[in-house]
Design goal:
There is one protein chain. Helix 4 packs parallel to helix 5 (139-149). The longest helix has 18 residues, at 16-33. The chain has helices at residues 16-33, 56-62, 78-95, 108-119, 139-149, 159-167, 181-189, 198-201, 217-220, 223-236, 248-254, 272-280, 291-299, 314-317, 331-339, 356-366; strands at 7-13, 39-45, 69-70, 100-104, 123-127, 153-156, 175-177, 210-213, 242-245, 264-267, 284-287, 303-305, 321-323. The chain has 16 helices and 13 strands. Bound molecules: uridine-diphosphate-N-acetylglucosamine. The site of uridine-diphosphate-N-acetylglucosamine has 19 residues, from helix 1, helix 5 and helix 11.
């Protein structure tokens, strides 16, 4: 029997970038269990990402327990995937209610579960609330706006996020500036980073290669564009190897491109410890991800973002990141700057100190939600 005053919290995770964000929250809840903690969680995996390399590897490496429930939704169009998550999560909540639904990040699972919970009168907490890129062509921006418009408690990573929320009329007693759970995971695991199996085969050496990731529809969904960007990167990297772990979405498009530059080495999506080993020892990272720009900022690795905007401006104003856009002509000047030793150094944003998960759990314990 659970004690009367126990609060039941659903922790929602669906896609790869969610897993490093939930790990420290779960760890902090587990740590509190033996010493008067009042929180009880149910881990709900929506199944948005289902490949071992996109999901299970992260659970294993980060010590995340098996999900209590897997909604097994799989892939689909934006609406199909969102709708499937909503239908299945609603069924779960109706059969077995909880007091709070905690969502992280900006993926379809985040928005879908927030809508379902709020409509059933279950409070919603959003970890990484308040981020805005202003770019409505990205599904993630729609997910952020919708989720935040129905969130009760915001756990934020930056002053920019706080400001966005204040500006949209959210009272300050619902905004908690806690830091960055993704960075909690990075700092907690840095000593465990390890080289991937291909490290020796590709003769990689520290600072003698770059890392590339690309999966945004704007960059990968047109083969001509993808091919041009890869050509520009391969050329501008001055024969250094560029390690390119390929996301499933990108893989489908790459199959249609006949040749890519020889120094671009495609590999499978990497598990957490191997991927961050690669980043930590690289000369620079080229990416269209948001989360990776936070990790490179903390590791002090130069980062070039293949986007025209970002929801994480502190990675630019304080960190090592720069927006270089998606025009292949911008790639060479950016890489020349790197090779000429002119890349900025950067510093770590406030509260990105490895304690966000603990702060979140302490706040959740004090909320009156049951
Ligand atoms: C999703 C998130 C994005 C995040 C990214 C990280 C949304 C809107 N997007 O994008 O914010 O940066 O995850 O990876 O939620 N697929 C597989 N195996 C898998 C998962 C996907 O093969 O385990 C394939 C499917 O064919 C699918 C495609 O990849 O159609 C895209 O997956 P999806 O979850 O729709 O979006 P992502 O591009 O991964």
């Amino acid at each position: 029997m659970k004690p009367e005053n126990t609060k039941r919290i659903d922790i929602i995770a669906g896609a790869r970038p969610n897993f490093m964000k939930i790990a420290p929250i779960i760890r902090a809840m587990e740590e509190r269990k033996g010493s008067g903690g009042t929180l009880n969680y149910r881990l709900v995996h929506t199944g948005q990402h289902y490949d071992t390399r996109m999901s299970q590897d992260f659970f294993n490496q980060l010590g995340i327990p098996e999900p209590d429930v897997n909604l097994d939704v799989g892939s689909g169009t934006q609406a199909e995937q969102t709708a499937a998550i909503m239908v299945r999560y609603e069924r779960l909540l109706l059969e077995n209610p909880s007091h709070l639904c905690l969502v992280v990040g900006d993926v379809n699972s985040t928005m879908a579960c927030a809508i379902v919970a709020q409509k059933l009168g279950v409070k919603v907490a959003h970890v990484e609330g308040g981020l805005r890129s202003g770019d409505w062509t990205m599904p993630e921006e729609i997910n952020r706006i919708v989720t935040d418009s129905i969130t009760d408690y915001f756990f934020t990573t930056s002053e920019h996020a706080n400001k966005n929320l204040y500006n949209s009329g959210i009272p300050s007693d619902r905004i908690f500036f806690v830091g960055n759970t993704m960075i909690d995971t990075l700092l907690a695991n840095m000593s465990r980073f390890r080289p991937p199996g291909f490290w020796n085969r590709l003769k990689l050496a520290p600072k003698k290669y770059l890392v590339l990731t690309m999966h945004r529809p704007a960059n990968v969904d047109q083969t001509k564009k993808l091919s041009e960007v890869l050509k520009a990167i391969g050329h501008a990297c001055r024969q250094l190897p560029v390690i390119f772990p390929v996301h499933p979405r990108t893989e489908k498009m790459l199959e249609r491109i006949r040749t890519i530059p020889e120094n671009i080495k495609t590999v499978e999506p990497q598990p957490y410890l191997e991927f961050n080993y690669l980043v930590k020892h690289s000369k620079a990272v080229i990416t269209d991800s948001g989360g990776i720009t936070e990790e490179t900022t903390v590791m002090g690795i130069p980062c070039m973002t293949l986007r025209d905007n970002t929801e994480r401006p502190e990675t630019i104003t304080e960190g090592t990141n720069e927006l270089i856009g998606t025009d292949p002509r911008n790639i060479k000047p950016a890489l020349d700057k790197l090779f000429e030793g002119r890349w900025k150094k950067g510093k770590i944003p406030p509260k990105w100190d490895g304690k966000a998960g603990q702060r979140i759990v302490a706040i959740l314990e004090n909320l009156s939600i049951n």
